């Protein structure tokens, strides 16, 4: 402080400092001491004026503010650490997009997905139709180092056998009639990312050989090409067929099966995870209600019991369709399905799909009634969509799905 005072005396700057003074009663008070110079006409300091002001209240307020700041900083650091832990926990439980459930069966699947996702291993996902095999594949891709690159899904059963090689591996110009230019296949489009081969068990024999080479050599040849093309693609395959039985029958190559079956994951049927149905229904109801602009705040307990009794041959996909249609038909705040719409039977009794057909018929009848009242008009305040209380785009989608000829209502 002495050095500062000497410097201020030399420069003529104001000198001030804070100090604590002990009173006679032993209590300390804070004071601000301020020294201001007086200059003469020649610019010399002729006198210093000093004053002291008690600032004890201000110092106490500053100390309280400093303590509060320290507490906030401590809480902030703690919150940051808790958020990191919570984020990790959330990532572990909701990293799998729409794979909803808490049953032991689905938990076992999630454990496998977590373990294999960071690797580059080939995965074979098996399970019945509608169990969510593609969702599992997308979850693996999302949590892998390839997540920023393409995820390319191919339904091998939906492509004619004459075109599947070109679709997967591409072709050169002039490779066949109609090949007017070179075309990249799905594997090259997925380079650096992940390719999902759904229904891989339906691949023809010659394509199985080409796929085996890709898995072994990490390179392919386009149809009509002579030069190998190096690729970096992770392969995830899926099937609802028994590939081991297909190998024994000679319809699927054993060497390809072993290449694909590096890390097998079996998706459980909905019958094996009945306890997940309430969670799935709640998720799907809110999803479709939000999409259709409806407010549904509750789910009828009897409906849940009916759903848990039904055997769901179409698994989650069938449940999804039933919930979507029922949300369209729902007119109140509680989601419910009439018992007559779903045939509650064991797999050995009434044929599957009857309840689903009844629900579709009910939906179709309601849409047709609304189209009759609106004379075929879908949009607008007097249109069928407004009468049903759903967005126009949703109604158009359902009209197309149910094969309703809306134009015939314009003359009614």
Q: Report the β-strand fraction as a percent range.
A: 15-25%
- Rg: 36 Å
Order of helices and strands: HEEEHHEHEHHEHEEEHHEHEHHEHHH
Name the poorly predicted regions.
Answer: 84-96, 343-354
Sheet having the most strands: 5 strands, parallel
**How many discrete domains?**
4
Give the oligomer, counting copies of the same chain as homo and different chains as hetero. single chain
Secondary-structure arrangement, i.e. CATH architecture of the largest domain = 3-Layer(aba) Sandwich
Number of helical elements? 15
Question: Spatial order of the strands in the main sheet?
Answer: 5-6-9-4-10
Helix and strand composition category: alpha/beta
Please give the alpha-carbon distance between the first and last residues. Answer: 99 Å
The helicity comes to 40-55%
Overall 3D geometry? elongated
How would you state the average pLDDT, rounded? 83
CATH fold name of the largest domain, please? Rossmann fold
> Which CATH first-tier class of the largest domain would you pick?
Alpha Beta
Work out the number of β strands.
12
Superfamily (CATH H level) name of the largest domain: P-loop containing nucleotide triphosphate hydrolases
């Amino acid at each position: 402080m002495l050095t500062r005072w000497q410097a201020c005396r030399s420069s003529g700057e104001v000198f001030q400092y804070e100090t604590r003074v002990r009173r006679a009663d032993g209590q300390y008070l804070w004071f601000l001491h301020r020294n201001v110079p007086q200059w003469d006409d020649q610019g010399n300091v002729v006198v210093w004026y000093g004053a002291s002001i008690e600032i004890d209240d201000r110092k106490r307020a500053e100390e309280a503010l400093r303590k509060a700041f320290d507490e906030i900083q401590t809480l902030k650091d703690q919150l940051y650490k808790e958020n990191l832990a919570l984020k990790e926990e959330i990532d572990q439980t909701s990293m799998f997009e729409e794979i909803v459930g808490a049953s032991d069966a689905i938990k076992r699947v999630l454990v496998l997905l977590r373990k294999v996702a960071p690797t580059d291993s080939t995965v074979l996902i098996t399970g019945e139709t509608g169990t969510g095999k593609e969702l599992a594949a997308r979850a693996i891709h999302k949590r892998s180092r390839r997540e920023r690159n393409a995820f390319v899904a191919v339904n091998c059963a939906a492509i004619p056998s004459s075109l599947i090689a070109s679709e997967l591996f591409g072709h050169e110009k002039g490779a066949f009639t109609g090949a007017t230019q070179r075309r990249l296949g799905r594997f090259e489009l997925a380079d650096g990312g992940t390719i999902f081969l759904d229904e891989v068990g339906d691949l023809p024999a010659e394509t199985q050989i080409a796929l085996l080479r890709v898995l072994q050599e990490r390179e392919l040849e386009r149809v009509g090409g002579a030069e190998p093309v190096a690729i970096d693609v992770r392969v995830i395959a899926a099937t609802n067929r028994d590939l081991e039985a297909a190998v024994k029958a000679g319809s699927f190559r054993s060497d390809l099966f072993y290449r694909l079956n590096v890390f097998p994951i079996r998706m459980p049927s909905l019958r094996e995870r009945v306890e997940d149905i309430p969670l799935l229904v709640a998720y799907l109801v809110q999803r479709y209600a939000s999409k259709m602009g409806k407010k549904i705040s509750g789910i009828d307990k009897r409906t849940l019991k009916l759903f848990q009794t039904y055997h769901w041959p179409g698994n989650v996909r069938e449940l999804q369709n039933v919930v979507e249609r029922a949300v369209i038909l729902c007119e109140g705040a509680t989601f419910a399905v009439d018992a007559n719409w779903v045939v509650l039977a064991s797999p050995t009794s009434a044929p599957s799909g009857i309840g689903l057909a009844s629900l579709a018929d009910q939906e179709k009848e309601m849409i047709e009634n609304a189209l009759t009242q609106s004379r075929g008009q879908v949009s607008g305040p007097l249109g069928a969509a407004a009468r049903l209380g759903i967005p126009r785009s949703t109604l158009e989608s359902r009209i197309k799905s149910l094969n309703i000829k809306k134009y015939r209502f314009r003359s009614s």
